[in-house]
């Protein structure tokens, strides 16, 4: 398979890239700085690197980037500093998803292309009735007012749900919702659920970035896993140690 990964220089994105390369797949990444690519994968024979910001491409250039790809994965996010949270582009993830989906369709692929988005448990799946307490609704409402990245994450997933939908025919999608992200050095046991099993605000769980990357790689490369979750927004947690 050939997979295009954006947000590949981030803490989770680089782990996804490693998982895919270790499984023998060809990976294309778009990164702003060559220094952001880990040394252990930079010279991998199956890795193709383009130095740019994904939103700086013209439509034709982005179409060429997506050409021949069996899957596209986004681990894009906003830097957790003042510029990253309140600066431009305010809709980084949503605009990238919109334009990447357009690029995929422009290529008229012979079979559906998989699109995997890394999202957040702070965003609910509006296709399901997910129980959310009044207090959590209030906090989420406040986040929408004061944290533009939260709105961006919501709108990115909503674009896949409503604009691509589950009957597109060209693009199939999954939006992965990790809970509180932590760093671990190895893949451990984890659980995947259709909806949160705990409050993302008042009782957040944890999941390692390497586990998130592993699950995203499974979605992309394993047909059974994909068929189980396509068109959904699965939530992932580390399995608690007994």
Summarize the structure.
By secondary structure, this protein is α/β, with parallel strands linked by helices. The chain has helices spanning 13-22, 39-42, 59-66, 82-86, 92-106, 134-146, 148-164, 209-221, 223-229; strands at residues 2-6, 26-31, 47-51, 71-74, 113-118, 171-178, 180-182, 190-193, 206-208, 235-238. The chain has an eight-stranded mixed beta sheet with strand order 3-2-1-4-5-6-10-8, with helices on both faces.
Key words describing this protein structure:
alpha/beta, 9 helices, 8-stranded mixed β-sheet, Rossmann fold
Could you walk me through the main structural features you see in this protein, from its secondary elements to its overall organization?
The protein has 242 residues and is of the alpha/beta class. The chain has one domain: NAD(P)-binding Rossmann-like Domain (Rossmann fold, 3-Layer(aba) Sandwich). The chain is 38% helix and 20% strand. It is built from 9 helices and 10 strands. The strands form 2 sheets. An 8-stranded mixed beta sheet has the order 3-2-1-4-5-6-10-8, sandwiched between helices. It has a two-stranded parallel sheet with strand order 7-9. The longest helix has 17 residues.
Strands ordered across the widest β-sheet: 3-2-1-4-5-6-10-8
Q: Give average pLDDT, whole number.
A: 91
Q: Assembly type of the shown chains?
A: single chain
Protein structure class: alpha/beta
Q: In this structure, how is the largest beta sheet organized?
A: 8 strands, mixed
- Give me the CATH fold name: Rossmann fold
Q: What is the H-and-E element order?
A: EHEHEHEHHEHHEEEEHHE
The CATH superfamily is NAD(P)-binding Rossmann-like Domain
Give the termini distance in whole angstroms: 38 Å
Tell me the name of the CATH class.
Answer: Alpha Beta
Strand runs, count: 10
Which CATH architecture would you pick? 3-Layer(aba) Sandwich
**What's the Cα radius of gyration?**
17 Å
- Helix coverage percent: 25-40%
Unreliable segments (pLDDT under 50, ≥5 consecutive)? none
| Overall geometric form | globular
Count of separate DSSP helical elements: 9
Number of domains: 1
- Percent of sequence in beta strands: 15-25%
